[in-house]
TrEMBL record, chain A:
One of its GO terms (molecular function) is sodium:proton antiporter activity. NCBIfam families: CPA3_mnhG_phaG, PRK12674.1-2. The chain crosses the membrane at residues 6-27, 48-76. This is Na+/H+ antiporter subunit G. Keywords: Membrane, Transmembrane, Transmembrane helix. The keyword Membrane applies. The keyword RNA-binding does not apply. It comes from Halosegnis rubeus. Pfam families: PhaG_MnhG_YufB. Signal peptide: none annotated.
TrEMBL record, chain B:
This is Monovalent cation/H+ antiporter subunit E. It is a multi-pass membrane protein. Residues 336-359 are annotated as: Disordered. The lineage of its organism: Archaea, Methanobacteriati, Methanobacteriota, Stenosarchaea group, Halobacteria. It comes from Halosegnis rubeus. Residues 344-359 have a biased composition (Acidic residues).
């Protein structure tokens, strides 16, 4: 394997790992706010790593440039979307879950 | 201070001379009517923080305008009116960056309150940024703050000239060029067909978004500095994101799920829209913290763990964003904890952090 292939492999595996973390977080975390953490961030990094692997795999063609642009836009829009969701929730008056009320929570 | 006061914000505009005359007439009439002294306060809201303004171009310009205003006012008052009308001039907003209409309104309202002024007279062409129409929203904000707002009755410049105003053509061309280059980048070739369609698309985009995008004049040197520092910031941000993501992965995969979510509020020391957006997005990207709401510079952030909260209030991200937009001197402003600008919400009731309680 060339170093490039190793890099691609490592990035793909990293992407899969963080995507899995995002899903596990989505299921395990207690409320909307905490879930937004896992879906917005772990998910962003997972997608970034996967797209980075794609960019490397295409090796300097136009597709690489486009993939990098795609990556950049995900980097900007993903947190914005998470923020929009969380803010909407806050405006609806949804109370954030805290450790103090552990007893009531399933 | 007894008597009445007028606050007149001024900026370089065609009708500023007539506004001064109008204000002086109003003040003279008022003084004659009531027999009390009347003060006229002409202020120039500086859009930039004075201490960071290396060139001080804007400040010098503002001072020269205020000097002219004072001379005009003296001229209009004439020698014979043994002054029931006093004229003052001043720069305001020297300690912060002004961007949105509410920033301007806040600064003006604060100044008016300190000097016991309740009437604000606007030059109808008052336009501090030179490109966007800030006046109506500023007026609304001030009315909401219980100020009497009037427009100086002066002959207005023709609206039709707005589109060919100095600088705007350059912005149009800049926007068209950027759009065209981006089009060509996506097309990936410089064939005549792509050049033609790209130019047309660029012009269409520039026409549609002319008034929205690139609304402040482009200053190449400042832009280059920002882009350069942004290139330093991105690797730093990516590193932060990766490290913090690993921590979150640990928390999420840990059998006990050791989380301690909390809502933190703090005032960030960043001023205009773009830096605030960058900071808000960076906060959201750094795992463990999501920006819930931003009202001007007041951030409400949801933090997942104690660690992430401490990292947030340590202010390293904030400092980095300031470094990108304002340069190295701005990066030395203390962090939120040192400034004691924070409060923590838990259980719906607000309690202050330990640092704040010591006060």
């Amino acid at each position: 394997m060339t170093p490039r292939e190793i890099a691609i492999l490592v990035m793909t595996l990293g992407g899969v790992f963080f995507a899995v973390v995002a899903v596990v977080g989505l299921i395990r975390l207690p409320d909307l706010y905490t879930r937004a953490h896992s879906t917005s961030k772990s998910e962003t990094l997972g997608a970034l790593l996967a797209l980075g692997a794609v960019a490397l795999a295409f090796d300097g063609t136009m597709t690489t440039v486009k993939t990098v642009l795609l990556l950049l836009f995900m980097f900007i829009t993903n947190p914005t979307a998470a923020h929009a969701i969380v803010r909407a929730a806050a405006e609806q008056g949804i109370e954030p879950w805290t450790t103090d009320e552990e007893g009531d929570e399933a | 201070m007894t008597g009445t006061g007028y606050l007149i914000p001024v900026s370089e505009s065609r009708s500023v001379r007539n506004t001064v005359r109008y204000a002086v007439e109003q003040a003279t009439d008022r003084a004659a009517e009531t027999g009390e002294s009347v003060t006229l306060r002409f202020v120039y809201p500086l859009s930039k923080r004075l201490s960071f303004d290396e060139g001080t171009g804007e400040a010098e310009h503002a001072r020269s305008l205020l000097d002219r205003v004072e001379a005009w006012a003296d001229e209009d008052l004439g020698a014979d009116t043994e002054s029931a009308v006093e004229v003052y001039t001043s720069l305001v907003g020297t300690r912060e960056y002004l961007f949105s209409p509410s920033d301007y309104a806040d600064v003006l309202a604060e100044y008016a309150r300190t000097h016991g002024i309740d009437v604000v007279v606007f030059d109808p062409d008052f336009d501090p940024l030179g490109t966007t129409a800030l006046l109506p929203p500023i007026e609304n904000e001030l009315r909401r703050g219980d100020f009497e707002v009037e427009k100086a009755a002066v002959a207005r410049a023709r609206r039709g000239t707005l589109l060919v105003r100095r600088g705007t053509v350059a912005q149009f061309l800049g926007l068209a060029t950027i759009s065209t280059l981006f089009y060509l980048l996506l097309a990936g070739s410089l064939a005549p067909f792509e050049l033609a369609t790209g130019t047309i698309s660029g012009l269409v985009v520039a026409t549609a978004l002319w008034g929205i995008s690139l609304t402040t004049p482009i200053q190449p040197a400042q832009m280059a500095g920002r882009v350069g520092r942004l290139l330093l910031y991105i690797p730093y941000l990516v590193w932060e994101v990766v490290v913090a993501n690993l921590k979150i992965a640990y928390v999420v995969l840990h059998p006990d799920l050791p989380i301690d979510p909390e809502v933190v509020e703090f005032d960030a020391a960043v001023w205009s829209a773009l830096p605030v957006t960058t900071l808000a997005n960076s906060i959201t990207l750094t795992p463990g913290t999501v920006t819930v709401d931003v009202t001007r510079r007041h951030f409400t952030v949801h933090a997942l763990t104690k660690d992430s909260k401490a990292g947030l209030l340590g202010g390293s991200l904030e400092r980095a964003v300031r470094f990108v937009f304002y340069g190295r001197s701005a990066a030395r402003i203390p962090s939120p904890i040192e400034r004691r600008d924070t409060e923590t919400q838990s259980d719906g009731e607000t309690e202050e952090t330990e640092e704040a309680v010591d006060r």
